[in-house]
Amino acid sequence: MMTVQIEITDRSQPEADDQHLLKNLNRLFLWVNSGCNARCRMCDIWREKPGRTLSVEDVRGWAPEWSRLDLEYVILCGESLMHPDIFQIAQIIREHGIRVELLSNGLLLKRHAESVAQHCDEFRVSLDGPREIHNSVRGVPRAFERLDEGLVELRRQRPDMGVDGRCAVHRLNFQHLRATVQAAKDLGLRSISFSGTDLHNEEAFRRFSTLDQQYIAALAVREADLPDLTRELELLREECAEDFASGYISDTPEELDAMLLQYYRGVAGVGPMPQVRCNTPWSSAILEYDGTVRPCFPMSAYGDIRVFGTLEAAINSPKALAFRRGLDVASDSTCQNCVCPTLFTGA
Questions:
Q1: 52, 70, 144, 221: most buried, per Cβ within 10 A?
Q2: CB count, 10 Å around CB of 331?
Q3: DSSP 3-state helix, strand, coil percentages of the chain (rounded to 5)?
Q4: pLDDT of 344 above 80
């Protein structure tokens, strides 16, 4: 299996301070509500008490500025279909010329398929593997079946709406990559992509009191399992060559070697972590339901949008500027443990 060497983008030493000012954004991840209706094995967001939300009034007040930032996409995340006014929020965003992508586990999709079809430009679902694996990882009854039913209804409402899938790979599903691709086809998904599973950052997935060695051991691909992961990736490359060529699997084989095999070799301590090529802190931002603004999910917050008044003020605050001024993705410990080392979100 090839060891991938990925170009490092180092923007920690600019020629002038104005290179740290963000005058536009490519994407804004809008985490609209607390809690979740799944019980995923690799995430603790569901342990949060639900009901804390960004309001329609919040978004109506902020959206004009987002348009001035040349924002291309707002990605609605958390389990957005639990938000009581999510489609009003989506409509406001789209009225300002910004595309809306909604991320979901699909458990509520059948109920909301008509509104998703009407108010969203893109829809992406989590897929953990074939039926039995997906249901086990999601931790709720009939998760796969409910996702399937929702997708059928969405296609009925809007046949031309492509739905993409995303699979976080870990110890519970790494032997089922080919079966995951087939499950994606069975569900009628437009594409499927993969990533590793975050095992390092408490900020991501709200694991402030649970990310211990027992938690990590339950999800990490162990050293003894690495030959099986290697073989599964080899078979995926061989048996799904047409899916790589067509882009149905939206990662390249080399990217999967880095994101999965090299990542879990690093986690097991038998090799280096993948080298990083990423510009997310310079092109995207996270805005959470409590007003928190951060550069990406695992990283510490810049502050609160309600304190700064605008998103632009928050992402260009003294703390934000100092963060980008000092960030070297080649050596930052959070970046080095990233499950998407090849993420590149814009110019």
A1: 221
A2: 12
A3: 45, 15, 45
A4: no
Q: For residue 16, what pLDDT is reported?
A: 44
Q: What percent of the chain has pLDDT over 70?
A: 89
Locate 214 and state its tokens.
Answer: 């027992």
Residue 252 tokens, joined? 């390249």
Higher pLDDT, 190 or 4: 190
- Overall size of the chain counted in residues: 347
Give residue 43's pLDDT band: very low, low, confident or very high (50, 70, 90).
confident
- Both structure tokens of 241: 């060559």
The pTM is what?
0.88
- DSSP label at 46? G
Sequence-separated (6 or more) residues with CB below 8 Å from residue 121: 94, 99, 100, 101
How far are the Cα atoms of 22, 69, 166, 278 from residue 283, in angstroms, in the given order? 8, 11, 22, 10
Long-range Cβ contact pairs of 179-185 (< 8 A, separation 24 or more): 179/129, 179/130, 179/133, 180/127, 180/128, 180/129, 180/130, 180/133, 181/236, 181/240, 181/243, 181/248, 181/249, 182/130, 183/127, 183/129, 183/130, 183/131, 183/134, 183/144, 184/127, 185/248
- Model confidence at 341, pLDDT cuts 50, 70, 90, reads low
With 70 as the cut, is the pLDDT of residue 15 above it?
no
Q: In b/e form, how buried is each residue of 130-158, taking b as 16+ CB within 10 angstroms? A: bbebbbebbeeeebbebbbbbbebbeeeb
3-state secondary structure 87-117: HHHHHHHHHCCCEEEEEECCCCHHHHHHHHH
Using alpha carbons only, give the angle 315, 21, 281 rounded to the nearest 5 degrees. Answer: 55
Whether residue 313 is predicted with pLDDT greater than 60 in this model: the reply is: yes
**Type of residue found at 35:** G
In this structure, what token pair is assigned to residue 304? 């609160």
Measure the CA–CA gap between 70 and 235, rounded to whole angstroms.
42
3 state SS of 33: strand
Contact between 22 and 313 under an 8 Å Cβ cutoff? The reply is no
